[in-house]
What does this fold into?
Amino acid sequence: MIDPSAPWTSAVLKRDSSNPPLLGEVPPGGTPMIVDARTNMNRYLFLPGDLGTALAYLAERDLRSLPDGRSDIPGSGAFLTLQDRRTVRPSEEPFEVHRMFVDVHILLEGEEWIGYAPVTEGTPLGPYDAESDRSVFTGRGSFFRATPGLFFVFFPQDGHKTCIAMETRGMVRKIVVKVPAQ
It folds into this structure.
């Protein structure tokens, strides 16, 4: 698991106005998740282990040329899935968190909103499912408009809700990367 006391957390998990490049208004106390332009992905290669390796792989590639479905990321335990998904209303999906993986989401086509809520501020909807590495919860969150060119990184404490439509539902094409959180 990612150790929240590790030295790099002050640079990533305690982001504030003096530590850009978070897009949008910075909540009081910062935010653990990462939201940034894909053109800035090289700024995050210092992240430890498979996460830095996965981001380097993504930064070097024409992501639209990747094959549909699952692909392993060489030199790491990470893998990506190129997928087409239909967006849903915010009320149709709970927030989710993962214990075993860090998620990286990159939208290639379409528009989605992505919700964020700290797991500590939610109400669990059931026990953790080890097979799917997923816990779900309800809670109030903030939503970010995801457009092609942005990427999002969610750590194990970051609840997220993806493929959300605030208005008209539609299809999105995106990459979801699963990086072992160890």
Observations:
- The chain is about 10% helix and 35% strand.
- The helical segments are 9-12, 49-60.
- The first helix runs from residue 9 to 12.
- Residues 94 and 138 are 6 Å apart (CA to CA).
